[in-house]
Amino acid sequence: MSVFGRRRIGILAALAISVGMAGPAVAASCGNNAGGFNNWVGQFKQEAAARGVSRKTLDSAFRSARYATKTISLDRNQRSFRYSLDQFMQKRGANAIISKGRRLKQSNAGLFRAIEQRYGVPAGPLLAIWGMETGFGSFLGNQHTVSAVATLAYDCRRSAFFTTQLYALLELIQRGWISPDFRGAAHGEIGQTQFLPANVLKYGVSGDGNRSVNLKGKADALASTANFLRAHGWRRGGGYQPGQANFRAIQGWNAAGVYQKAIAIIAAEIDK
To answer: Is-above-0.85 flag for pTM?
Structure first.
């Protein structure tokens, strides 16, 4: 029996259903504006309860949930990935990330050494991702996470994918890894390196020796990021530029080609 108790099995089973080959069987009807959101939440809660999610978890999670207009706006206008590589690097402040990344590599040498010993991932790619995602933790997001993920699950564009994320988020709330009123990025990303909820469950590990996973902490976030890369094919000692063995693992982190190349370039400069 899991240390999280019998109630956990219901949510994990629901998540297993939602990540199956055909995707989740979503009973609640999706929509493309705020008009049907509250009705959708009611339908979703009934569906989730039938799959074993506790009423306590559902009530606490959705207590403050609202249609996330900003999330929808940002989801419709992701313009930065349309830039050239040079434009993207300049827009994201690549030189500043490299400079600070080198300093953080030195000041956190023990942490990065331990992570590389365990996962085979050197400091550069982790620092590049950390810097690109949150400016090394300077901004983790200010959006109500349940609202953001529920809105995207309701929205017809990617309803199945974000319904999976919503079930995962409920599991994180029930485990006590995040609070029902947790705030993060606009698409529900969590912590220093911006994991989606399902990836927290799948790849989240403790980097500081305790049993929980707190991705607001740098040790857990960086160890979890290394674990993600290893799970996506990272080979110890291999190169990570385009065409090299470990670039595929970087591609697993983000689907945008310009982002992937920027990570590889920034990482190499930090690792010099």
So the answer is: yes
